[in-house]
Design a protein that fits this description.
heterodimer, A: mainly alpha, two-stranded antiparallel sheet, elongated, B: mainly alpha, about 0% strand, flat
Amino acid sequence: MNNRLRVLRAERRISQAELAELLDVSRQTVNAIEVGKHDPSLPLAFKIARVFGQPIEAIFSDGVEAQDQAAE
Amino acid sequence: MLANQECDPGLTRRDQRNLRPLRLYAVIWAASFMFAHLFLPTDVGGPGTMPFWAWPVLAISIVFGTLLAHAYWRFIREADELLRKIHIEALAVGFGVAFVFGMGANLFDQVGIPKVAQVTWAVMLLAYSLRLRISRKAYCE
């Protein structure tokens, strides 16, 4: 799964530790999500979406759309 | 504890809080188990002939073992989701290795190489600890 977490965090100038505090997870969890080593649970994905004020699909994508576009 | 700061397990405050009883019960259980192992009589010939003090010694070890298992269950259930994933992976590997090793040990026993099964617990713990270390490193690098 792909995500825009690092970009959104950079835009808002929030550190991984600060975001982790907001989400009530460890900094390592935020890092693992950003680098694509861990897919967040649905409740955590909703929390992330709330923190950034965006819908989940604007932050996370499963990569299928990109494959579809490439196929076209 | 891993030396690399980047590979620090990264416990949240809730995880740290849940880790305290886990550590406490682990120490008490280990002490009570060692005490029971060292001082319980060996050739008593069945439960009816056990000295009266042996029962509380056994009970204390079992009670603290149960409290330890409950504390670990709670720690995992409430853990940060990456930490939970790491622990569940380690538990799965530990269980799988112990199952295969334990069943294999029975075959060793069958062909006349006894006592291999006695180290099943140690093998399980080793596999669990190794996987825990590998997963922590894999997810935080």
